[in-house]
Amino acid sequence: TGDGEGPLARVMQTPQVEPEDDVTQFAEYRRLKSTMRQMQLTGVPNPYFTVHDCVVGDKTIVDGKSLISFASYNYLGLSGHPEVSKAAADAITKYGTSVSASRLVSGEKPIHGELERKIAKWVGVDNSITMVGGHSTNETTIGHLVGPGDLILHDALSHNSIVQGALLSGAKRRPFPHNDYEALDKMLTALRGQYRRTLIIIEGVYSMDGDFADVPKFVEVKKRHRAMLMVDEAHSFGTMGATGHGIAEHFGFDARDVDIWMGTLSKSASSCGGYIAGSEALVELLRYTAPGFVFSVGMPPGQVAAAIASLEVLEREPERVERLRHNSELFLNLSREAGLDTGDSGGTPVVPVITGNSLVALRLSNRLKKDGINVQPILYPAVDESAARLRFFITSEHSEEQIRFTVERTAHHYNDLCDTPAKLRGTA
Ligand code: PMP
Fold first, then answer.
1. How far away, in angstroms, is 21 Cα from ligand 1 center?
2. Source organism's superkingdom (predicted)?
3. For the structural domain made of 42-72+318-425, what CATH number should be given?
4. Which protein residue has the closest C-alpha to ligand 1 atom 2?
């Protein structure tokens, strides 16, 4: 080989990139620091990583001060419920704090199967499998069930864990317009024939807007095109339907019409972890092959027992779901009457108050805190600037008085902040 043709010459000709080995110089890190500086310039305290020194339900304690809380997913007030806490403590005494291995090898306890049978029954399908995190349940399941040569069509407002799972899978990924089953139908007509498996993914309740899809229409579409339908019930499990059985109960359709039900145990079930519920075959396949299950530890005993106990309390006290619905509708109706923009929220426990401006959202949240109300702002770049908002999570434990006071204060400060644009430039 003459000069300029050998392996060394080929390496020399390859364009060289600047090595990066210092995180402080990463573009992502510099962007983060710049965003934080901008936030500091507003004079409003950083709203993230607030320390809550108690169980967070309708109330919380921050810096020693009691606040009405609208910032936790403790929708049914079961985290902190004495029966749930005792069940977790008893399970820890009996089985320890960790199962110390993947369940496939030696981490299996009797309560794992008990919880999974209970979830399957709750959802209305054959069986279920639980994993240690909700986010990782989506990632590993979606990432594993489809791959190159397959197609994923997901709602444009899908949660990050769905998008991450789709990216991991290597399948072709196309979002469809939010809740638009007709657009989905058209995409399937155009694309279905080119792919082996097609997975459609939607959510039971959307956590940014508190709205939900016409799921029976999605079932119709998926059947017509022989696609699989997955529904993430993170925010609808325990909250939707007359007794909290989820979006299938809300619409009154057979849960077996959905191929893959996913949910988290960190919200209504006051624990931690995720589940996939569906056919025996689906669960069996995941139990033996899903990387995030096979190569990860089983759910810890305390968390398993807490989820079982939460479902037991809920079976006995379905009125919690009724109270949650009553509170959610009250909050929504009062907000609308007060002229606040609650977007498409549909009587679910998630009610956004859209400010359309990050600074207004930040200041509004800070003013409410001074009034004794804890609510998280959602700012750009988490959402478009025009969609900046406060996001209220309602619980069954809020009182009518807390809700009326909160809506009145929110409307008061919002109007004040927006009335005079000059006020935006001063400190709130
Ligand atoms: N799916 C959705 C729709 C979610 O909103 C979330 C988290 N809020 C998850 C999955 C992940 O659940 P977890 O926080 O329990 O990991």
1. 32
2. Bacteria
3. 3.90.1150.10
4. 234
What type of residue sits at position 188?
L
* Whole-angstrom distance, CA of residue 67 vs CA of residue 58: 9
Which stretches of 177-214 are DSSP H helices?
Answer: 181-191
Q: 46: which 2 tokens?
A: 């950083």
DSSP class per residue in 282-338 = HHHHHHHH-HHHHTSPPPPHHHHHHHHHHHHHHHH-THHHHHHHHHHHHHHHHHHHT
Locus of tokens 């399957």: 120
Residue 18 has pLDDT above 70, yes or no: yes
Helices of type H across 46-148: 82-95, 110-123, 134-145
160: CA distance to ligand 1 center in Å?
A: 8
- Provide the angle, in degrees to the nearest 10, between the axes of the packed helices 181-191 and 215-224: 10
Position 4 confidence tier, pLDDT thresholds 50, 70, 90:
low
pTM assigned to the model:
0.94
Centre of ligand 1 from the C-alpha of residue 333, in Å: 27
Atom of ligand 1 nearest to the CA of 158: 3
Q: By three-state DSSP, how is residue 109 classified?
A: coil
Q: Is 207 in the pocket of ligand 1 (CB under 6 A)?
A: yes
**CATH class for the domain made up of 82-316:** alpha beta
CB of 209 sitting under 6 A from ligand 1: no
The ipTM of this complex is 0.99
| CA dist., res. 357 & res. 352, Å (int) | 13
| pLDDT tens digits along 69-79 | 999 999 999 99
136 lines ligand 1 (CB under 6 A): no
Residue among 74, 140, 154, 159 whose CB has most ligand 1 atoms within 8 A, to mutate: 159
CA distance 128 to 146: 19
Can you give the residue ranges of every domain in the chain? 42-72+318-425, 82-316
pLDDT band of residue 418 (cuts 50, 70, 90) is confident
Residue 25 has pLDDT above 50, yes or no: yes
The alpha carbon of 133 and the centre of ligand 1 are apart by a number of angstroms equal to: 8
